[in-house]
Write a structure and sequence with these properties.
Order of helices and strands: EEHEHHH
Strand order of the largest sheet: 2-1-3
Number of strands: 3
CATH class: Alpha Beta
Structural class: alpha+beta
Shape: globular
Strand content: 15-25%
CATH topology: GIY-YIG endonuclease
């Protein structure tokens, strides 16, 4: 299996959704399609746009980062997007210890 990435999509220009996957393009396509593979949250939106993605490595670390991002206030999520944080910067921003792959 490939390396895991964290991604953020903007739904209907207002809402943010964070997820993890090994294939960001495929997963965003699933969200956009609105079918059963889309997250329940994203199915109701007419517009889905990928606004951020970063390669993390392990599934466990990607899940930890996803969890931390989902708990952040909107302004901090927007800051991640605006600054296009790389892997190490994101780990520091969400306060996740780095682990070896």
């Amino acid at each position: 299996m490939g390396e895991w990435s964290v991604y953020i999509i903007r739904c209907d220009e207002r809402f943010l959704y964070t997820g993890i996957t090994t294939d960001v393009a495929r997963r965003v396509g699933e969200h956009s399609s609105g079918d059963r593979k889309a997250a329940k949250y994203t199915r109701t939106f007419s517009s889905i746009a990928l606004v951020y993605e970063v390669l993390i490595g392990s599934r466990s670390q990607a899940a930890k980062i996803e969890y931390r991002i989902k708990k952040l206030p909107r302004q901090k999520k927007e800051n991640i997007i605006l600054r296009c944080l790389g892997r190490e910067e994101l780990l520091e921003f969400v306060n996740v210890d780095q682990e070896t792959k």
